[in-house]
Automatic annotation (TrEMBL):
UniProt subcellular location: Golgi apparatus membrane
Sequence ranges assigned to domain NXPE C-terminal in this UniProt record: 22-92
Reaction(s) this enzyme catalyzes, per UniProt: a ganglioside GD3 (d18:1(4E)) + acetyl-CoA = a ganglioside Ac-O-7-GD3(d18:1(4E)) + CoA; CMP-N-acetyl-beta-neuraminate + acetyl-CoA = CMP-N-acetyl-7-O-acetyl-beta-neuraminate + CoA; CMP-N-acetyl-beta-neuraminate + acetyl-CoA = CMP-N-acetyl-9-O-acetyl-beta-neuraminate + CoA
Protein name per UniProt: N-acetylneuraminate (7)9-O-acetyltransferase
């Protein structure tokens, strides 16, 4: 499958997803808003020249600039349009036949004194068929006329974008008597003549007249909905206008979800340095492996001829093995990052738009959930939210989120609201898990902090470098990183209150509650003071981490959306551990968490609360209003789930090892999906095997999961090397890391300067 020019595919091939969504072959089409269309076409002059079908396309095109335009005026005359705010001029010129008049008009643009239009869209044929009653002489004359026009259009194509629109098929049963001679057979003959003659003199030239043939494919699917059998329904011509906008504007506006007609982005300085680093790592690993293999052969066990005893080979020094492990990890990571780059930065693999249907979301969900039930095992411990249970929770949530993303289910509001709860549940676990660790262990050492920060951020930092994306682009990792530091700061700051000290005096519990109340007040203040929040994160170098598109609004929105749920997780952990210490709950195998009566009441209450939230989320009508309520009410369904999962003793004593396996690599799955499962930074779907959607999903999913698992192993291996337990060694490593980031900031500043 040739990569080639995706513009060619956009103009010539594609298919419908559903009834109205057009999917070009191999690339993604951006849906332009009015403001984007104006920014692209500012100071441009566009001309549509042809018959009534071209007039239809003209109206659909200008409605992308100004939706208020009405289709009125002389149908068989010229129609001007101008948007003074953006200095855009669009003209329709009535030339229903390819004849001397059209040639004269086109010729006038080739003369030096006349300003050439930036875009020319031309096409005509049906009038010639109608006026001459479909005669062969008319077709012969059409060929002569288009032959005389072709060199002029090719000359214009050197400085302007020139499109020749092929004739759409007609629905012959609906044609009026005066149009019965316009048959699809005649239209095909005229189209064949146009394609053969246009660009005949410039086969090897880059400046060509672009043949707009995709309209034929669209018409074949929709012409039966035409009012008169000749003119396309409005939705179809709107699609044609959007294709025209993508062909011209994608290379200017560079939308993330518009991969058609976009050139491959040039390598940045940081990407080139990363490439050199990974190349050297691979070479270094190969050299060390060869040296070790050679030494192994020399020191291979051999039998002592005198004593008959076997000699053991020499053991390699720790420094060598650590270096080899380091290079081995970077070698694998380099190969994986190459795959990332090829999938989502090089124009090597195809990309397609998402298209949501209920079946594409709910059928995989049911399949995966049923599959998980078949892998039920007993837990090693029966405590509330034990390790196996939290891994299982993360696993099934991650699988649901992945299906949500690839199916494009964000367009369906009830599903969106439930997925928001799953994201909140991850943050709830962050609050619960880190609070429990610090409260029980009392370990506020630098080693623990560095281990957590490294495991959370390593992959994202590498991707920021390799994929040329800002840190905030992978919003979930900054979110959990900042919340981890907030939890650490809340508990580590004076007075340090942990379980060991609180057991001696109950007043310490109130001290900790006071700390949590102060945290809640700070969260509340920042959530309603956007200015204060933006000032905090706009200071350099924090701004380099949290800015997206030149401001920190996106970061504020993401933080605000789940602002209370980490606090709820911390509070739940505190109450649970206090109840556990007071022996007010029973966590034996098969035993209910509380007495039978209390357990039954809480269980019924939890089920009702769970269903109540689902009913409310399913009745949401407005995403903005529901997002406003979400931070306060998401905890209802999360707590209801925790209680349903943990109150019955049997349910608490088992878990799904299938989900738990995915839970252990949930962070890697969440991040890797951006580039090697989805495409165009999550906006589309990666297509490794065109034409076979199910097979493509199976293959890309298999590779994606394997890569995520491998990256998890690499991160764990590197964490042991980069973040050692010895404090003096750790301090040296931290200084090296600080130097690395200082260098990265310096190179980034140089790179930004060169871009400007």
């Amino acid at each position: 499958f040739k990569g080639g020019d995706t513009c060619e595919y956009l103009l010539s091939s594609g298919r419908f997803l559903g009834e109205k969504v057009w999917q070009p072959h191999s690339c993604m089409m951006h849906k332009y808003k009015n403001s984007e269309a104006k920014n692209c076409l500012v100071d441009k002059h566009i001309v549509f020249i042809g018959d009534s079908r071209i007039r239809q396309l003209f109206y659909s095109f200008i409605k992308l600039i100004n939706p208020q335009v009405k289709e009125e005026g002389n149908k068989h005359g010229n129609i001007p349009f101008e948007d003074k705010s953006a200095s855009i001029k669009v003209d329709f010129l009535w030339y229903p036949e390819v004849n001397g008049s059209m040639r004269q008009r086109i010729k006038s643009w080739t003369e030096g004194s006349v300003a050439k239009p930036h875009i020319i869209v031309a096409g005509a044929a049906t009038w010639s068929i109608k006026i001459h009653n479909g005669s062969n002489e008319a077709l012969t004359q059409y060929k002569v006329n288009i032959t005389s026009i072709a060199p002029l259009l090719e000359k214009l194509a050197k400085s302007s974008d020139v499109y020749w629109v092929l004739q759409d098929p007609v629905y012959e049963d609906l044609l009026s008597e005066s149009r019965k001679m316009i048959t699809n057979e005649k239209i095909d003959a005229y189209n064949e003549a146009a394609v053969r003659i246009l660009n005949s003199s410039s086969r090897n030239s880059k400046a060509k007249v672009k043949v707009f043939s995709v309209s034929k494919l669209i018409a074949q699917e929709t012409i039966m909905k035409s009012a008169d059998g000749l003119h396309l329904p409005e939705s179809s011509r709107d699609t044609n206008a959007m294709i025209l906008m993508n062909v011209y504007c994608n290379k200017i506006m560079k939308p993330i979800d518009g991969s058609c007609c976009q050139p491959q982005p040039p390598l940045t300085l940081i990407q080139k340095l990363a490439f050199c680093f990974f190349t050297l790592s691979i070479i270094g690993y190969i050299i060390i492996s060869l040296i070790h293999r050679n030494n192994y052969r020399k020191n291979k066990s051999c039998t002592d001829l005198e004593s008959g005893e076997e000699k053991k080979p020499a053991i390699s020094t720790p420094n060598i093995s650590t270096l080899e492990m380091l290079l081995h990890s970077f070698c694998k990571l380099g190969l994986i990052m190459t795959y990332f780059y090829l999938c989502d930065r090089a124009n090597l693999f195809m990309k397609e738009n998402k298209f949501y249907t209920h079946s594409s979301f709910f059928i995989p969900i049911i399949y995966v959930l049923v599959l998980g039930v078949f892998f039920t095992e007993n837990t090693k411990e029966t405590k509330v939210l034990n390790r196996e249970q939290t891994d299982e929770w993360k696993g099934w949530m991650q699988l649901v989120i992945l299906i949500y993303h690839i199916s494009g289910a964000s367009t369906f509001l009830p599903v969106y609201m439930h997925i928001r709860v799953l994201v909140a549940a991850y943050l709830f676990q962050t609050g619960y898990g880190h609070f429990s660790y610090f409260w029980v262990k009392g370990d506020f050492g630098v080693y623990r902090v560095c281990q957590v920060l490294f495991r959370l951020n390593f992959l994202v930092i590498v991707l920021c470098i390799v994929m040329d994306r800002p840190y905030q682009f992978y919003y979930f990792v900054p979110l959990v990183t900042v919340w981890f530091m907030i939890i650490y700061g809340t508990l580590a700051l004076w007075p340090q209150i942990v379980q060991k000290t609180a057991n001696g005096n109950c007043l310490w519990h109130f001290g900790l509650l006071l700390k949590l109340i102060c945290l809640l007040i700070c969260i509340y203040f920042l959530s309603y003071s956007q200015g204060a929040f933006e000032k905090i994160f706009s200071f350099w170098p924090l701004s380099k981490c949290f800015e997206l598109n030149g401001n920190v609004y996106e970061w504020w929105f993401r933080w605000k959306l789940d602002r209370y749920v980490v606090f709820h997780g911390m509070l739940f952990a505190f109450i649970y551990l206090a109840l556990q210490k007071c022996q007010m709950i029973t966590e034996g195998k098969g035993d209910p968490l509380f007495s039978s009566r209390v357990s039954n009441v809480l269980l019924v209450f939890s089920v009702v609360a769970f269903l109540t939230y689902s009913i409310w989320a399913s009745s949401c009508k407005n995403k903005t209003e529901c997002n406003e309520l979400h931070p306060s009410v998401s905890v209802v369904q999360i707590l209801a789930f925790v209680l349903i999962r943990n109150i019955p003793g049997y349910v608490r004593s088992v878990y799904s090892s299938f989900f738990a396996w995915f839970g252990k690599i949930s962070l890697e799955l969440f991040i890797c999906q951006y580039h090697i499962w989805l495409a165009a930074d999550t906006k589309g779907i990666l297509v490794l095997i065109p034409g076979y959607p199910m097979f493509n999903i199976l293959v890309s999913t298999f590779i994606f999961v394997c890569v995520a698992h491998e990256i998890s192993q690499i991160t764990n291996d590197l964490a042991q090397i980069v973040v050692p337990k010895d404090n003096s060694t750790l301090l040296k490593r931290l200084l090296c890391i600080a130097g690395f980031f200082s260098g990265l900031l310096l190179v980034s500043a140089v790179q930004d300067q060169s871009r400007h």
